[in-house]
Amino acid sequence: MPTTYIPTIVRDDAHQDDIWDVAWSKNTNCIITGASDSSVKCWDGSSGELKYDLDGHVLSVVSVDTNNAGTRAVSASIDSTLCIWDLENNGALVKTINATPVEAWKARFSPDGEFVACGSHNGDINLYSIESGDKVSSFATKQKFVTTTAYSPDGKYVAGAAEDGSIYVFNVETSQLAHTLSGHARAVRDLTFAPDNRTLISGSDDKCIHVYDVEHGQLASVLTGHTSWVLGVDANPDISKQQLASSSADRKVKIWDLGMRSVLETHEVHSEEVWSVAWNPEGTKLVSVSEDKSIKWFASSGSSV
């Protein structure tokens, strides 16, 4: 019988404006949110209480992420900066990385925590060193705005998706383009790798979610059900569940069974576009953020985590 995810904690007016991204850290159990009011905040993953504000940006924050150790967070802003935060020291600002204009978009940590990958308006996927703050390499695509990036959990691949719907998958070790994945008719908003390292999932403005086999560079399935732009996708880290969470401008959060290629459940708890979703490390809880300025928690029935 499918697991049911029950709405639990609600934080209304969590930010002063639209909340654009959310990440759930490992070990430190922090939820990091970034908003168009230029603020970044850290919340307790269990209680939903605000732990602290992370002050460093002057313009809208477009993305947040945490490293695998749960010790660092990164936020990217349209002010062309990447901020690295210490989650073990009340969110102290560790480093500010200055990128050239529109080169700091959808920042994602590498699995080893040493680099951050960002999309850019000129079509490059840029890698920045956390230690030095320098841009250490770039993967060139077809000069279309790279809206989002994702690493495979094993660090073998980094993927970037573009405003024209194309997805580019690079082999990190060789820096070579492994695959160009097509199929979306409009811009791709978000990417996530499943924990098997070979399944890449994308959400697009064409209202579709695509599931790709990265090993063979093939489209495996198309998930339909959202009635507007798919803004966020996140694969459940518990590989045994084969689940995906998605969020959309249709104000809905959906849980999918990737094995059955079907919707398990749909939640309508937000009053505006739902920009992002994130699982906890155990895959037993989920959080969503929205243009309605709220954060919503969900927990699997019978979960003790």
Topology:
Blueprint: E1 5-11, E2 19-24, E3 30-35, E4 40-44, E5 50-54, E6 61-66, E7 72-77, E8 81-86, E9 92-98, E10 105-109, E11 115-119, E12 124-129, E13 135-140, E14 146-151, E15 157-162, E16 167-171, E17 176-181, E18 188-193, E19 199-204, E20 209-213, E21 218-223, E22 230-235, E23 243-248, E24 253-257, E25 262-267, E26 274-279, E27 285-290, E28 295-300
Q: What does it look like?
A:
The chain has no helices and 28 strands. It is mainly β. It has one domain: Methylamine Dehydrogenase, Chain H, CATH 2.130.10. It has a 4-stranded antiparallel β-sheet, with no helix packed on it. The protein has a 4-stranded antiparallel β-sheet with strand order 2-3-4-5, with no helix packed on it. A 4-stranded antiparallel β-sheet has the order 6-7-8-9, with no helix packed on it. The chain is globular and about 45 Å long. The two termini are 20 Å apart. The mean pLDDT is 94. This is Anaphase-promoting complex subunit 4-like WD40 domain-containing protein. WD repeats lie at residues 12-53, 54-95, 139-180, 181-222, 223-266, 267-305. It holds the Pfam family WD40.
